[in-house]
Amino acid sequence: MTLTIDQQILRMAEIWPGWPVVKSEGGDAALWSGTLRPNATTYQVDVFYKPPSLLQNVSVRRAQPRVYVRKPQLVRRPGDPEGIIPHVYWPKGDPEAGDPSLCLFDPEGKEWSTDDYLAETTIPWSALWLNWYEGWLVTGKWLGSGRHENHGGAVEPKSADT
Question: Are 84 and 137 in contact (CB under 8 A)?
Fold first, then answer.
């Protein structure tokens, strides 16, 4: 059973009260903004989520929430063997097309589904991603687990409404 956007909003408010939400005009999507500080740096993060409707048959890859780091801007390292920024999705597969969203789980690994609360998965996983990112900045190696096709050059998953 896919959790509704209202269920997601309520759970986020319970666990992450410092993350205000803006609900879409149609009431079928939400955007949360908040801060995470896994180590030395505090990050401003946005999470956008639109659960698929019951009639849509979409993959987890297309239904997943989108997490964007707004401040500070993620550092790009052209030529890095791990990728310009590892474990991200670029819009249209192009680093010049806009800001990447974070790759937080393997869509084929059944690590997340639309039955899971974002407050219990996406936000903690974002903090963990930022931890590994800070390590990558220091060491040049992505020390976190997971796999990502094209070393961070994956195409942004299409939203549930496209």
Answer: no
